[in-house]
Input
Amino acid sequence: MIIPKLAFRNLIGNGTKTWLNALVLSFSFVAIIWGQSLFEGMDKEMSKVTIDQEAGGGQYWAGAFDPFDPMTIDDAPKTIPAELAVETSSGRAAPILIVSGTIYPKGRMVPALLKGVDPDQAVLKLPFDRLRGAAGDIPGLIGARMAKNTGLSKGDTVTVRWRDASGTFDAADIEIVEIFQTQVQTVDVGQIWIPLKALQGMTGRTGKATIVTMPAGTAPRTYPEWSFQGHDVLLKDIKNFVQAKSVGFSIFYLTLMAMALLAIFNTQILSIWHRRREIGTLIALGMPRGRVIRLFTLEGTMLSLLAAAVGAVYGLPLLIYMAKHGWVLPAGQADSFGLALNQALYPAYSAGLVIVTILIVLAATTVVSFLPTRKIVTLKPTDALKGKWS
Amino acid sequence: MTRFSEIGIVSPVSRRVDRSKGNEDNMDMKELIRTVDLTKIYPSGEQPITALRDVNLVFTPGEFAGLVGPSGSGKTTLLNIVGSLDTPTSGSVEVLGGKIEKLSHKKAAELRNRHIGFIFQTFNLLPVYTVYENVEFPLLLLGMKAAARRKAVRDALAWVGLADREKSRPAQLSGGQSQRVAIARAVVKKPDLVLDDEPTANLDAENSHHILETMKAINRDLGTTFLFSTHDDKVIRHLRRKITLIDGRVAADETKTA
Output
């Protein structure tokens, strides 16, 4: 126990120099924890809202449906398998029929996806119940971005044209009954939601759907002409985005950490240089070289523990504030990413993240502290006692 | 100043007798140090420097001896080799029965830790520690229990007359006080041998006198062997044995008769 005691005494005895180093290193702790938790928070938030409003617990895709290939859309719809139909009829699964069409808002021609959804479904958390039981024109629901792009408002009627199952063009008027707010752009931009039965009737695709969104905890099953897509596929863009951003940010905090480690390395080298007489004295007093090396290395490691404590003093209030108020992006920036990004990003802290960060910085500091101490092995105590460097 | 016999210090000579029961060395226990044809050569470009040549000396427990001679005569080199901080180029040095040239770094550290105290010209106190902590340091290395450590440190500080400065830091002490702390640190573990390298070189006459009186008292009361390296007349006057080194050779070895 003597080495930790001595290391602590030396560290505290160095006064301002120690505290300045600890402060610089603490920036790394706070920045890494804040940055990583921000990406964890983004990941969680985007995943949650996408699951709630689009992906559910997974989706069955009909035939060759590929959301990134418009040519597959009109040929994809298939009859909902009987087993799934039981689920959809009770609202426990959400069948969606997707047909490409064109809308004519205010005299303009805008391509749009017509999406038929069961107003009684209980899987997706969007206000589809507003499509229930409307009289007159076909009720339609659009997102705020679609409303902005097309100039449509609640209560407006817009003409829609589509091709039915046999390829014949047809048209009808749709009344916008609600404009909803959502972070998930893929349920908003370029699409108009109408009742499933109406769209099936309009296109001659009775009993058919393109997607069946399942509730959470669905075990994938196999149905002919349908394929199950789990979160690994449906949330892939989010994961890729977070990973790409996380890597970018890593460069920032690695630079920060490199600066802090360089400061420690430099301090250690200077410390060993300035304290060579002290090293000689320790050896003369009977401290084996190995223990001298351990002492100097531990001083560096303790510095990172001190930095963690210093970081906690100003970092905790900062991180708590960020968790409460979030990091608000400039207006319109959230949409520019094309993902379900909230206007305010809320970091998600976890004990694992904090512990792993502390361990990484601790390990890096220990290595950086140890490297210069190897010089002590070659130091002649007789020279060191005179303040010389052999 | 407190007399050491008054605070129950046992002479290291008597302690050595106890230790000899389990001591595997076969050196005559009346000999503390023996050098045989000791030679030390420092490589220095094409012209190596011979610091010591065929030095043959024997020191017994309780001596108050000094190596004197001009600068570069090999005094400090001999002290460093005896203190196991350096090794001979040829010849042999036995300290407490152990051959210095055969000791590993670890064993040499153990020898210094248990049996040898050092006093340096420049004091070499650990700057971030208090006086108390500086004196306590060798005992920490020995793994002594806290209560015994506390008593030993307080006793040692009492010997050197610094009981009231235990919380001071080295920077707050005068040269004389610093050297007294260094003495306390050297003798606190009651070593068999104290090596003093020019202990008064940075001190004025009055402080030098106090320091020497302190060391003589320790030598007298504890039986600790003191081996000095010095060219200070104030120190030389107090030596009971004076070994003169010239160009690394023993030029004279004189013992003062009582």
